[in-house]
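Page 47, continued from p. 46.
Same chain as before, 243 aa.
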Amino acid sequence: MQMRHLLFAAVLVTVGLLVSGQPNNNFAFYKLSLQWPPSVCNAPNFKCKPDILTTFTIHGLWPQLADDTPVPAYDEETNRCTDVTPTSPDQILVDLQPIEERLRKVWPNLRNHQTLNKVFWKHEWKLHGMCSDYPDSPYNFFNAGLTLATNYINPFEGTSITPRENLYEAKHISEAIKKKVGKYPEIACNRVGGTLQLKEIRLCFERSNPPSVLRDCPNKYSNACSNDFDDIRFTPPPLLTSP
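Result:
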């Protein structure tokens, strides 16, 4: 009976913390999402300006819960995920000035990688940075992503997987990355013209400050692709035309 009372008390405390808005940032790991612009940009509802980049870029660095769902965005009333006051999205750009040039190259906004980058960085900070381990340090959050990209921005380097029109079986892509880095990635696809395309490669890292140790991603496939036997196009970059 005493044990039952103790368990009930523990539940009440947990509920009380959530209701009162006390910090709740017990996420489990980070996910580094690398996007492939040729597949992102040829989707009917997504136009890239002024041109289509031809190297992987960072989509985001995302804190994930143990069940592989994203940590909800910070909200002072409903999701006070930190016990410090997080930096407002409108205040991050000064902090990012020392790494802004690197961010432009590696973490651009594909919708317009010349004029809309800052909008994209604010968006990623609001959704993911404010509830990370760096709620009051945009520099450290974005720099953590850049540091990971130093080693992983070209996930297929040294493998036999290259962009081509002929389709790959999904497991060949997954196993190639597993062989290279030692852990399974998450492969995210979109569908264009009835064909699955490799849209993103996501690598998972144990939670640490900064994240550095790879772990298997809980889900090997997401978005439009779902299993080892999906046939996927690694979309070639568009041909350059002479002026």
